[in-house]
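Why do we care about 3D structure at all? Because function follows from shape, and shape follows, mostly, from sequence. That is the central idea of this module. The next example makes it concrete: a single protein chain, its amino acid sequence, and then its structure expressed as tokens.
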Amino acid sequence: MGNSVSQPLDRRAVLRGALAGGAALALGGAAGGCATHQDAKRIATDNRWRQFAGTTLNFVSESTAPTAAIADNLDPFVELTGIRVNIVTLELSAMTQKVALDLAGGQSQYQLIYADPYNVLAPYSKGLVDLRELAEDPSLPSMEGGFDDFIDTQFDAAGKFGDGDEVFAIPYDCPTIIWQYRADLFEKYHDRMAADLGFDPTPGLERTWEQYFKIANWFTRNADEVPYGTGHQAKQHGSLMCDFSNVLWAFGGDYFADGERVGRFGVRDPGPCQLASDEAIAAAEFYHRLLSIADPSSISWDWNGLSPAFRAGRFAMCPDWHENAAGNEEAFPGKMGYAPLPKGPARSANHYGGTGISISANTLPNERKAAWLFVVWSTSVRTQLDGLKSEVGGGTPTRESVYGLPEVKAAERRPSKMPNILTAPTMRQAWAPENIGLRPKIPMWNECETTIYTQLSRMLAGELSPADAMREAATRIDRITERGWVS
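And the structure:
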């Protein structure tokens, strides 16, 4: 495989991808420009961690809890390697645009990339290093546990693209939407709800989405502690696509045929869109009905708005990203509960939104190796454990071995010094192959996603019926995918 420097991606194709979401870019902002790119210097040393001491790397990431924890705890990496890392955090669309321009420029202002599988990995995999070449390099530190220590589905979804064996990213975070609820309120009203509704309301895989609807409606009408039963991230934004997808998959619908393969490994041509199917329309009809009884402010919340509203006591439960558990535990100490999302006619589906860390293929040989040291360190057992303990952020582990550590297993029970790990029993169920929800990993997903949440927003605003929203989305997505992708 070697350490040859890849040719930059076709600039027009990359800019088309970066602009797909409708944001304008100034060409003068292309990273790297025409400046001479200097490789990192290698020091003659037997210490494989110190051979690139004095190097400075740049890491561009979405603004996430795991990256916040790593940024707050970089000293151990600097002490280990002598390498300094500048971390730039941005909103996802802005980050995607920076990455696209950097890859097109042929330089590597950002050697390290937070490679969202859908916005970065799928369209720009040709601009990323196949990390097997570094993992197999005997001059570099090995990755403890190797690739096999990462959760299988996440390793494929976050790190691979297409039918090949290439590994373009290492699983870095794993946010997944689960059922989060006020356990204190469910306990207080359990018997009354069960008597009124005719079923056990305790959240879990046994519950259905129809029962979720009835529970939400019951809380709205009967509980004094919260004004509404449920809230959702239903703003005209990618969060709306995420929220709806849980219902779509649960009802047996999908965006494309063979959705498991398209979501797990990715394809360049996914075939016709499936949103006009009976299952997808039934999912849209239920989602429309569910949002009609949810907190009305749901249509103004993305993933940054839903959690604060829940912590403010606006509703009793919601589908939310599991890595928000730490904040919820702080707001309601000892009063939170977690479960997989309800099932529909087909299954329970819990939307996985994890991402990997990649290295730009524009990096030069030594610079690439220096970047690998950060990839190994940032996804190590020690760093993931530190992230769990971090007071400024931190995610949940992507490594199987971290969940097996005695102190981590003990922290699954309250009182816990690692509040996010309280979700671990739920996540074991949510990440099971039959329960995980994987959106399509295709190069043109950014445009498709915009179409989906635009038509869903029109549905929620009363401009389109659920059936018309699905059919319109399918028609528009077919036009997008028929154009194909050139990179």
